[in-house]
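User: Could you check the structure of this?
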Amino acid sequence: MATLREVAELASVSVATASRVLNGSTHHHPVSTEIQAAVRAAATTLGYMPSAAARALKQQRSRIIGVIASDILDPYFAELTRGIEVEAARAGYSTVIANANRDPQQERTKFRVLREHRAQGIVFCGSDIEGASGTAQLAREVNAAVHQGTRVVALAPRGFSSTSIVVDNATAAVRLTEYLLSLGHRDIVCIGGIPGLSAAEQRVAGYRSAMFQAGAVPRVVAFSGMTKDSGKAAMAELTRSARLPDAIICTNDEVAIGALAHLWTNGYRVPEDISVAGIGGTRASAVFGLTTVTLPLTELGTAAARFITDPAAQPAVPATPAAVLRPGLTTRAGSAEKAVPEPHR
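Assistant: Sure, the predicted structure tokens are below.
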């Protein structure tokens, strides 16, 4: 591989001049257009590739976007990350993905590592958990990093100061609940979530608000996870009760898919016996025809990457793309009172 010195010798300039031309720093030390052309021609002839590490040290930033995801196995975060990655590549940036397992301590460690690698920006894809150990320390470090010029973007509710591109989780749940109410359902149960997880808490709050507004009684059960397994467990609990609800709203699509799995494998019909709906709009939910509020996951990721790579000193914060209610095959009009049906074997 050619060296910078070899490029300078071929172009008949000093190493310092060749470096300024190839690193784009000629605004502080003007170099004539003829010399710039000669240096670039020499670099092309020799196949010279600038050192990314050296450029990062010079510019105080590397062409890296860090992504801290709560759970990389969750399709929700995969789709957010995909949006970031595609836009980052288009702008000539690389993406480094870190899985934090919904743990503020891990988020803090990975945030530090990304800063040590001089990432141009860092995206937090998941919301924080109120009161979790390490949350306050993470907030202090993020606030300091933002003050020092690191572009930090939150795609979910967070307790620190950063650029936020966040959907209205409460409104999404209100719209979904109102839709089920419009189908004639009154006994609507909300399942799934993690205590203190901001996004889940907001969705539950939206569900409660819509139920109270309609004069219906809200009921939240199995607030113990946001995975397929927790959805299956919650649905198993409901099918053991004296009366099956008219409908269930799940705090995310993964919980809804788990609930569907339990119902289908135990002989229940959806939506004939019970309507099921989720929030997220992941590709997996579309495969099952799930009624859901489709959150603009890819678009959110794209907006975050576009903000970080914007060459402006103070880029405008992108508008949050709209969420859309997507009626599917898992809901239909139903009666308000019914006993638990016998499974259809």
